[in-house]
Amino acid sequence: MLGNRVLNYHPVCTFIPKLMRIINKRVLNEVVANATIWGADLAALFLPRHCAGCDTGLNRNEECLCLACLEDLPRTRYHEDPSNPVEQLFWGKVPIHAASAFLHFARSGVTQRMLHRLKYKKDHDVGSMLGGLMATELRDSPRFGSVDAFIPVPLHPKKERIRGFNQSKLLVEGMNKVWPKPMLNDQLLRVVQTTTQTRRGRLDRWTNVKEAFHIPDPVALQGLHVLLVDDVVTTGATIEGCVKALAVVPRIKVSLFTAACA
């Protein structure tokens, strides 16, 4: 308003800002997106990414595994079978509510190559991806649906310092992105540094780990359904040691899910 006159703005005055906003949103965003893609492609020339399963080069839209390996993962689909081989490992030994493994393990197979890359080449992306796949497989299962929290099977602190990470914890972190649950990383401790289990028989493995674990605060776990998470289950001796330690907790329910079973 100027005196008794009303200032009328020409339609062009309102059109130009709208046009500029459209240009910024569509054109500039596209330029930024293309620059990101070009940058990724350029980096791939010097630092090519390889599939954790077959070692072939990965495409831009593939993460850790190529589509062929992802499609052909040797899934066990044990999670709905209460008589599956993983669960049978613990019959008559320790109380396990439910137990399963995501993948079959075979020497020189895709599962072994993935876990080797995770544990010995420190490829944390593989752990995150594998954990996400594990959670997707398990989260809608009635047998595991009441899980309250995840507990990664712990390493002894000295071993974890040497390795730099706990692979079971990386799996849980990946699971949490798909199936958010509290990670009780400090409620099951490994207090005895055991020797390697690789070439031991079942009895030797059990003797090696039977007193290796400790629960610092049993009250914190009282009445919970906890899911133990580990990379591979073979004889089950390590898990037996964990469950034996957890058995001091009143009304606890313990289940198990591993990335693989051998």
CATH topology of the largest domain: Rossmann fold
Order of helices and strands: HHHEHHEHHEHEEHE
**Order of neighbouring strands in the sheet with most strands:** 1-6-5-2
CATH architecture label name of the largest domain: 3-Layer(aba) Sandwich
Figure out the total of helices.
9
How many individual domains? Answer: 2
Low-confidence stretches: 32-45
Could you name the CATH class of the largest domain? Alpha Beta
Describe this structure in words.
With 262 residues, the protein is an alpha/beta fold. The protein folds into 2 domains: 1-47; 67-261, Rossmann fold, CATH 3.40.50. The chain has 9 helices and 6 strands, in the order H-H-H-E-H-H-E-H-H-E-H-E-E-H-E. The strands form 2 sheets. The protein has a 4-stranded parallel beta sheet with strand order 1-6-5-2, with helices on both faces. Helix 4 (110-120) crosses helix 5.
Primary descriptors:
two-stranded antiparallel ribbon, 41% helix, globular, single chain, 9 helices, 12% strand, 262 residues
Q: TL;DR of this structure?
A:
It contains nine helices and six strands. By secondary structure, the chain is an alpha/beta fold. The strands form two sheets. A four-stranded parallel β-sheet has the order 1-6-5-2, with helices on both faces.
